[in-house]
Amino acid sequence: MANNKLTDLAFRKLKPLEKEQLIPDGGGLYVRVRPVTEGGAISFRFRYLNQGKQIWMTLKAKSLADARKERDNYKSMAKQGIDPVTEQKLSAERARATQLAEEAEIARLQALTSVDGLFERWAATDLQQRKDFAEVQRMFTKDVLPVIGSFNVQDIRKGHVTDVIDRIKRRGSVHTARNLLKLMRQMFKFAVDRDIIEFDPTASLSVSKITTKNTERDRVLSQDEIKLLTQQLPAAGLMPSTECALWIMLSTLCRVGELSKAQWKHVDFDARTFFIPIENSKNDKAHTIFLSDFAYAQFQRLFTFKQSETWLFPNSKNTSHVCEKSITKQIDGRQNSTVYSNRSKANQALVMPGGKWTPHDLRRTGATMMGNLGVHGDVIEKCLNHTQENTLKRVYQHQALKTEQAEAWRVLGERLELLTSGNPNVIPIKRVI
To answer: Taking every annotated instance into account, which residue ranges of this chain make up the domain Tyr recombinase (predicted)?
Structure first.
């Protein structure tokens, strides 16, 4: 190193003058001190020879120590035939390219949507209008979002989806797995339609192969089982209101969800009707049920247990209706359910010879009994409030058949009255051909 190398003390004492100063530090390094009129800033310059030509370049260093390291690095380059100025420009371009790449990656990541974010957008856009919004939200919150919610939607593959489904299947909830796969498919299709993702990761997944086949239930309680139910209920430990609910569903063919959400304003004791508004109906069709004497008596009995001025079946806080699954869980819990078997002394109180049954089976049972009593199929469909599958009939046949429906509910009620009366001489009805 040259003898004219600056000492640390000499460097610290450098002061700006009227003119610019260029003070050598040896090895081609110079300390440049701007004049007072230009602010007196200190920088570092390096001088070297390239093919016999003297070249000056400004270094990036901010301290003398760093400047010396930078000088030594450039001197080494020069000895290898590498032009330091060119290398400095290339280095700056590489740094800029790296910066641009990092900025592009940040922008790409910011543009990505997490599964959590996708679900929020789907819920706000499509699910808000659905009657099952609360249930879908509960299912995703429980089983989907904890597993893949933090993942970018663009990174989701079918393996991630099957992981969610397999976790549900391992706990024995195959039907929940089936329904959730369908819902996830709806959500990812929503993402495809909005160009959030290019391909639906569930597209190649078979619902029946990945989960279970959709088995259509055909459970119908026999007349002997209905008589047995009358005997079993007192020992089942159900709430009296739940007992009423069972008989109401059987005698009116209403759905458990429709009954769970019912309000007292929907029951007209004078007109002897039970009205199911559009917002409570599964198929968005308002429905009026004409109450038989049997059904009317159950609503009257339920009224004696009245716990709310609004709801037939209020929740524990009396702020809304009971959970739509409440009645089903109570019935399931009296048929040796693994969920309730350790908590209920009556966990087999409602076991039937024909096998497990659900509240929805009561609706099917009532409809079957109507058919056996000679009620025409079209009338039964009206009583069930089914949507007509035949397009032509749906468009051109608008007759309400109110009189026929009222008669159908009446004959069903009379039969149920006989079956639940305790009379052992009731003869089972036979199907009318």
So the answer is: 216-410
Give the count of domains, the chain.
3
Residues whose CB is less than 8 angstroms from the CB of residue 85 and which lie 6 or more positions away in sequence, other chains included: 55, 57
- Sheet containing strand 287-290, strands side by side: 267-268, 273-276, 287-290
> Quick one: 286 and 394 in the same domain?
yes
Q: What is the largest CA-CA distance in the chain?
A: 127
- Indicate the pTM of the whole model: 0.57
Tokens of 166: 């397999």
Summarize the confidence of residues 143-165 as an average pLDDT: 94
Least confident of 24-33, 243-252, 394-403: 394-403
Task: Tell me, yes or no, whether 20 lies in a domain.
Answer: yes
What would the mean pLDDT of 79-84 be, rounded to a whole number?
A: 86
**Is 144 within 8 Å of 180 (Cβ atoms)?**
yes
Work out the angle at residue 328's Cα, subtended by the Cα atoms of residues 253 and 313, and round it to the nearest 5 degrees: 75
Do residue 383 and residue 333 come from a single domain? yes
Q: Write out the residue range of the structural domain in which residue 149 sits.
A: 115-210
**Residue for token pair 């195959």:** 174
Q: Are residues 129 and 264 in the same domain?
A: no
Phi and psi angles of residue 66, each rounded to the nearest 5 degrees, phi first: -70, -35
Most confident residue range from 173-182, 296-305, 400-409: 296-305
251-258 average pLDDT score: 95
Same domain membership, residue 287 and residue 233: yes
Task: Give the domain CATH number at 86.
Answer: 3.30.160.390
Would you put residue 150 in left (φ > 0), alpha (ψ -120 to 50) or beta? alpha
